[in-house]
Amino acid sequence: MKRIFSPILSFLLLASMAVNLSSCLKKDFDTPPDESSVDPHLKVTHTIAQLKSLPQTQIDSNVVISGIVCMDDRSGNYYKKIVIQDSTGGIEVLIDQTNLYTDYPVGRKIYIKCKGLSLGSYHGLSQLGNAPDAQGSLTMINGTTVGDYIVKATFPNKIKVDTLSYSDLKVPGQNVNRLNTLVAIRDVQFADADAGVPYAPPTATFNRSLATCSASGGIVVRSSNYANFQPILTPTGQGVIVGLYTRYDDAAQLIIRDTTDVRMYNPRCGNGATSLITIDSVRKLFTGGTVTLETYKITGVVISDKSTGNQQPQNLVLQQGDRGIVLRFTGTHTFNLGDSLTVNVTGGALAEYNSLLQISGLQTGAAFKSGTGTIVPRVTTIAQINSNFEAWESTLVKIANVTFPSGSYSGNKVISDGSGSITLYTIATATFANDNLPTGTKTITGITGQFGTTKQIQVRNLTDIQ
């Protein structure tokens, strides 16, 4: 006998199947559970200090430690390792895995089941990892088995950071319990040679020395060339730095997590207390011979523009009110047009170079940027400049109705405004040196200077010609 399904019966059967299927499937998938508040409460058998006191060999007993991650690899300043600390100390954990911060970010509590792992040290710094290689260095915990040893717990957790002085931490052998823990050092600055420069060169891990007003050479900030802050310039001020306290044999090292660990916002110190003096007062100290400046600092706004190369890279022109002066550093500086600076000129040589007064012999770290500012140029004529040249030297002026000779900017070119003439000087390597001088009458803004008996004006960039 043939069985015939009516269209209505078929529709009802399909609808029933669809309902049953939809009851088995969810329209939205569940998100992974949030384990940030879950603590498995493993039984901890040892503090980190007790673990580090064990023989440096493979651990064959059921040792369990816990701690808070205080250093991860988020910034790239650490690679394939994390550091944890508890109230007794810290230890470095070697893991053959990248992007560890996704599982073990700074602030996460973890447990480590140490049985089967090995204790070791690297130039005096305790480590936990796998069995040593042929050279005796610990190998890394395999990334595929790391879950057998490390158990994640709550996140985030506050990390205790002790604030200490530079002298407190200068000798790592006297601070063994602080190694591999976060510390803060107060009243510190980068040494003169290491202030205002990249944290590391692009090709190598590098050390930058820290200093105080009375001490230097004992603690370095060590930064990887793979850190995402590698090209950022070290601050030129003084303040507080937070970092992981480590050692390399007898040398104390600090490793920052990122640049937010560095808070050096105060003016840096020199050799003792400094007195604020005006640029006008500094200029008046010069009487004909070289003057070694006492414990002074000056302030002002940078009126030169290093970006166009029309000043020597070690030089800048600083103006305060209606007085200015050339500063010459021992290396290439990093300050830009419009930066407001406080400069420790203690020990600087105040002297004329080819008749131009300058302070030379300054470390780049002696200058501290406090903000930005604006100097309004003095509106004048060439005749007035020539009549007041010594007083107006190294200041910003503005001259209208200026005519130019033909040719390029490069070298010495005599310009006039109807009241007199002055030499427009442009360094041959300036970015605009080979551009043609303008035609017709223009308004020019520039910095007054001199070379021997020649009175000069220099433009900073081509926007100075209007």
Automatic annotation (TrEMBL):
<feature type="signal peptide">
    <location>
        <begin position="1"/>
        <end position="21"/>
    </location>
</feature>
<keyword id="KW-0732">Signal</keyword>
<feature type="domain" description="DUF5689">
    <location>
        <begin position="45"/>
        <end position="262"/>
    </location>
</feature>
<dbReference type="InterPro" id="IPR043744">
    <property type="entry name" value="DUF5689"/>
</dbReference>
<feature type="domain" description="DUF5689">
    <location>
        <begin position="275"/>
        <end position="465"/>
    </location>
</feature>
<dbReference type="Pfam" id="PF18942">
    <property type="entry name" value="DUF5689"/>
</dbReference>
<protein>
    <recommendedName>
        <fullName>DUF5689 domain-containing protein</fullName>
    </recommendedName>
</protein>
